[in-house]
Design brief:
Keywords: Carbohydrate metabolism, Hydrolase, Magnesium, Metal-binding
CATH topology of the largest domain: Rossmann fold
Pathway: Organic acid metabolism; glycolate biosynthesis; glycolate from 2-phosphoglycolate: step 1/1
CATH architecture of the largest domain: 3-Layer(aba) Sandwich
Shape: globular
EC number: 3.1.3.18
CATH superfamily of the largest domain: HAD superfamily/HAD-like
Radius of gyration: 17 Å
GO molecular function, one term: phosphoglycolate phosphatase activity
Largest sheet: 6 strands, parallel
CATH class of the largest domain: Alpha Beta
Strand content: 5-15%
Number of helices: 9
InterPro entries: HAD-like_hydrolase_sf (IPR050155), HAD-like_sf (IPR036412), HAD-SF_hydro_IA (IPR006439), HAD_2 (IPR041492), HAD_sf (IPR023214), PGP-like_dom2 (IPR023198), PGPase_prok (IPR037512)
Amino acid sequence: MKMIDGIKFVAFDLDGTLLDSVPDLADAVNKTLQALGRPEVTIAQMTTWIGNGAEIMLGRALSRSIEVDPDLDPALHREARQLFDRFYDEGGHRQSALYPGVKDTLDALREAGIPMAIVTNKPAQFLPHLLAQHGIAEYFVDVIGGDTFPLKKPDPYALHWLMEKHCLAASELLMVGDSRNDILAAKAAACYVVGLTYGYNYGQPISASDPDIVLDHFSQLAEVVKLGR
């Protein structure tokens, strides 16, 4: 297993990386589509539409394609977002679950004195409850949502912000994610990046985005940053 020296901070994506959230997202999207008189979508479809934030995900659901229909009615899109936010919140994230090895690995990173952050494109309003519900809120010194800053992944804005705030060189920051947006953001910030094979990534293999390291299991991350060595 390839290892990376000198990592002092780790930033994590959320959906498809720490948390399998597609069942709750699909449920809220389908309730939204039902309310709008539109046909439902499948879990398989939803898995390929996650990663660019709620607005684009809903645009894809309304378009029934990964390419958002340029003629999609903006008023319909806004109504869908309002409905989705309500249904997703009311659902309580009860169908989502941490991936195997997540909590033990976060524990090991914290015990090794490595601070951690969330950098996700999910709307920030959902993050405090979601992280607390799954018992991982206390691991993160910063929690950055898709609307926290003017720009979201694949833009490196959030990663640059973390480097500036925590006085990090790019070589000291590791991004961990399951999507090409995570890989592109990390490469643009010149930091290291791990790609996870089990996430969503629009149905494409994460290796195609050329991360520094590809992992099949979250727990392998401890070896990459050489915990316990």
